[in-house]
Design brief:
The protein is α/β, with parallel strands linked by helices. It has a single domain (3-259), classed as Rossmann fold (3-Layer(aba) Sandwich). The chain is 33% helix and 25% strand. It contains 8 helices and 8 strands. The protein has helices spanning 50-57, 75-78, 94-113, 128-139, 167-170, 172-178, 208-222, 243-259, and strands at 3-11, 16-26, 34-40, 63-69, 120-126, 146-150, 187-195, 231-240. It has an 8-stranded mixed β-sheet, with helices on both faces. Helix 1 links the parallel strand 3 and strand 4. The model has no long low-confidence stretch (mean pLDDT 94).
């Protein structure tokens, strides 16, 4: 098993202590570029056996540092789309979470891991944490070159279904992607499970989690990204909205990530 250690960050932006778990995988390389993977909802990684997955399925990185960021009691405020709370005003602190990562966590990781620089930086997350990771990848394309989203909460909307919701207008992340410019070398891994949920808002026979993710892919393609090259879509027939499914997918994501180097 690779090295694992934990520490807490006293975050000014989030007004709380944030626990992070650091998993590291090293390989014998003539050079030592360091890659960094930041994962929202890091408190769930142990239940996925993440340390063992990292040891068994990552071989092509010289040094890969994975950081599991524990969610706090205000998870539904800290995760979301920066600057765009949903119709219930959830996600109001998403911008603060992004600032915590960029201005507090990453600088501290240089010190804690003795890495003077990170050759590549990636993001990942599950459900609402996946939406947050995707949002940061969209907002900071020069900082993060790839993102993994497991059962992402792309339903995030500005109006409730009962208050005149219009799908083409009110899905927050879809609208944001439409206003985003294409950036070369930015890659997306999007996973959903066919059993993620049973809801079907528009009654088209496709559950919302798949429909919303396919909608995100369509928006990315519209600004220049290519499915199968820049966008990897993985649908798990028996996949559910749970850590068991995401743990099963993690080896495929890490392999995909290693291919992006």
């Amino acid at each position: 098993m690779g090295d694992v250690f934990s520490f807490e960050v006293q975050s000014v932006f989030l007004s709380r202590n944030v626990k992070v778990d650091v998993y590291e995988k090293k390989a014998a390389c003539p050079s030592s570029p360091v890659a960094l993977l930041l994962i929202n909802d890091g408190q769930d990684l142990p239940s996925m056996g993440f340390a063992d997955v990292l040891e068994k399925h990552v071989h092509s990185f010289c040094r890969l540092i994975c950081v599991g960021i524990h969610a706090g009691p205000e998870r539904k405020q800290e995760y979301g789309v920066a600057g765009f709370p949903d119709f219930m005003q959830r996600g109001a602190s998403a911008g603060a979470h992004a600032s915590f990562i960029l201005k507090e966590l990453i600088p501290l990781l240089h010190q804690k891991t003795n890495a003077l620089a990170f050759d590549k930086k990636y993001l990942a997350g599950f459900s609402l944490g996946g939406l947050m990771a995707f949002d940061m990848a969209i907002d900071h394309p020069l900082e993060f070159s790839a993102v993994g989203v497991f059962s992402g909460s792309f339903w995030w909307r500005s109006k409730s279904l009962e208050d005149g919701y219009v799908e083409e207008r009110d899905r927050i992340m879809h609208a944001k992607v439409r206003k985003t410019a294409y950036h070369e070398n930015r890659k997306f891994f999007l996973q959903v499970g066919a059993l993620d949920e049973k809801e079907d808002r528009n009654k088209n026979g496709i559950i919302d989690s798949i429909d919303d993710t396919m909608g995100i892919i369509a928006e990315l393609e519209a600004i220049g990204y290519r499915k199968g090259q820049d966008i990897h879509y993985l649908e798990i027939a028996d996949g559910r909205h749970d850590t068991s499914t995401w743990g099963r997918v993690m080896p495929a994501f890490l392999q995909w990530l290693s291919d992006q180097k």
